[in-house]
User: Fold Sulfurtransferase from Lysobacter arvi.
Amino acid sequence: MLNIAAYHFVSIDQPADLAQRLHERAEAAGLRGTILVAGEGINLFLAGEDVAIHGFLDVLRQDPRFADLLVKFSHSRAQPFGRLKTKVKPEIISFRRDNASPLSGARAPAVDPHTLARWLDRGVDDAGKPVVMLDTRNREEFGYGTFTGALTLPIDNFTDLPEALQPHREALREATVVSFCTGGIRCEKAALWMQADGMQNVLQLDGGILGYFEQVGGRHYDGRCFVFDGRVALDPQLQPLVDDAA
Assistant:
């Protein structure tokens, strides 16, 4: 099975109509997983046969709004999702904060995986500032693994992050802070919000942990990355903890 994780921020006027069309296409292709649609974009976690997945993506990218959709791929021996679910939501990831969507302006500054790995090798960025990795995931997720020495916050929901971060802000003032998450969507929103809230020293890890694993592997990462399906967690070679989900 080919597994994909993808999100894309773009204005969608009729999210319910788009959700129905995507569901019908995915169902016809025999795909399972989750499709989330909101006025701010889409968020996909899907699995199926290689040809079916690529066919779905080819049709999706024919829509100019999704022509630049970036996708993270991994494989499993069995289907990790029990069924296909499609939902229309207020946000493609719930954060409930203003100034946290790229639709309101440019994306937050990002660092690519290879550059980050080089910084972590040295312990400082190109300007000589210390690098602090900020995990924007919840405690269950980072319990499976995180970057070495990362700042983790005792949260159960992404919406709790601003309050949990508050006691650390002064200590982070002189560092380059790199926010990260599973696939990039939460760290993108978090970085935008932090920037709007006065933290000008924040970057996002482009592509999240899964993108880092694809390009760099496990350098400076301890453990696995929790994923939201029957595989439970992936190692830096994108191999699942559980690979017999039906």
